[in-house]
Automatic annotation (TrEMBL):
Residues 174-256 form the Transcription factor TFIIB cyclin-like domain. One of its GO terms (molecular function) is TBP-class protein binding. InterPro entries: Cyclin-like_sf, TFIIB, TFIIB_cyclin. One of its GO terms (cellular component) is transcription preinitiation complex. This is Unannotated protein. It holds the Pfam family TFIIB. Keywords: Transcription, Transcription regulation. GO terms for biological process: transcription preinitiation complex assembly.
Length: 383
């Protein structure tokens, strides 16, 4: 009888230990089985105790991995699970103790004042960090009324000190690059690459005056070449309102700086790189004429015809040749204006192309009766 009482009391003690020890590990609970005598472990009653202990231990493990809301907000004083959320404070209903606070640490991207018509900005999140201007991206902004003189001066002083002088100079250059590039139809991808190039150059060596202007223009020039939509040095110089000589000197300075730090891997510009954009400016929308002009350009490079002409000049001459062969009706003056090449240069290059027209135009096109007739006529006029 005493053995049964001791066994039952031992089982009750184990159950109480498991129920009350929420934060006790399963190993500690199972170790309590060592208190049972070795000869009693094989008895039916001992087996029941072990099963109950293992089941309760598994419940503790599951509860520890996935705690319920009641376990998370259990009162530390009265151990009650009856809690109430009062303005973000988790409070016990029985004793009134504040257990914890619910804090949302995520960013608040909601913009509630978008349609209220007020001038104040109630947004609570800033812009993403700009890797080109890392220090300025981590700054703060002072809000509030600026009616008092002291507050206005404080906000002005804060705004001035929120951006380091070096990054302020970069910001002004980036704004100038963006404004000029967007105004002249340069894509955003080229603008971003030009900013990357200039940031690297500015961190390596400082230039001022006209050398700095030429360096900024050269960043756009090389970014266009990297994206396989090159523009001539003359076009870039006109975009930045500088002489071509300053532009050329900027490219030279850039090559010297980048040569010491990063090797420039730029492909040589070809006339075919300019044909697509020039055709778009001249409203040549038929893809047949554009592709034919590119084929002519490739054959000119393959045969080495007129290597002394620059790629933009050659592209303008090829477009004028296609215009004359197929009677597109584009005056040479319009081609000169769109391509930025003088009419005299286009005429000289056009005459050279006419001498090799049988090589640069595909044979199937030359055999077309109307095309053949036009070419014979053009040969007579260019003699």
């Amino acid at each position: 009888m005493s053995r049964k009482v001791s066994r039952s009391s031992e089982a009750q003690r184990l159950r109480l230990t498991i129920d009350e020890s929420v934060y006790t590990s399963a190993r500690e609970i199972l170790s309590s089985l060592e208190m049972i005598a070795p000869d009693e472990r094989d008895s039916p009653c001992s087996a029941e105790i072990q099963e109950e202990t293992a089941a309760s231990a598994s419940d503790v493990i599951i509860g520890a991995d996935e705690p319920s809301d009641e376990d998370m907000f259990q009162c530390v004083d009265c151990r009650a699970n009856d809690v109430l959320d009062i303005e973000g404070f988790v409070t016990c209903r029985h004793c009134g103790r504040i257990i914890t606070r619910k804090l949302d640490l995520t960013a608040e991207y909601h913009y509630y004042g978008n349609d209220d018509g007020k001038s104040s900005d109630p947004s609570r999140c800033g812009l993403p960090t700009n890797h080109l201007l890392p220090m300025s991206s981590l700054g703060t902004v002072m809000v509030g009324s600026a009616k008092s003189y002291t507050m206005r001066k404080a906000k002005q002083h804060h705004a001035y000190n929120s951006m380091p002088s070096r990054e302020r100079d970069l910001y002004k250059v980036f704004a100038d690059i963006t404004l000029r590039a967007v105004s002249n139809g340069i894509p955003q991808s080229i603008i971003e690459e030009a900013k990357e190039i200039y940031k690297h150059l500015a961190e390596t060596q400082v230039f001022r005056g006209s050398n700095r202007k030429g360096l900024i223009a050269s960043c756009i020039y090389y970014a266009c070449k990297n994206k396989h939509v090159p523009r001539s040095a003359k076009e870039i110089a006109e975009i930045f309102n500088i002489d071509v000589g300053i532009m050329t000197r900027g490219c030279k300075n850039m090559a010297e700086i980048m040569g010491d730090t990063v090797k420039l891997e730029l492909d040589t510009s070809r006339s075919s790189d300019y044909i697509g954009r020039y055709s778009s400016i001249l409203s040549i929308n038929d893809s047949f004429y554009v592709e034919l002009a590119k084929i002519i350009s490739e054959r000119i490079d393959a045969y080495g015809i007129s290597p002394e002409n620059t790629p933009p000049s050659m592209a303008a001459s090829i477009i004028y040749l296609v215009d004359q062969v197929f009677k597109l009706g584009i005056p040479i003056k319009d081609v000169s204006t769109a391509c930025g090449t003088s009419a005299v240069t286009i005429s000289k290059c056009y005459r050279v192309l006419m001498e090799h027209i049988d090589l640069i135009i595909p044979k199937k096109i030359l055999e077309h009766p109307e095309v053949k007739e036009n070419i014979d006529r053009l040969r007579e006029t260019t003699k």
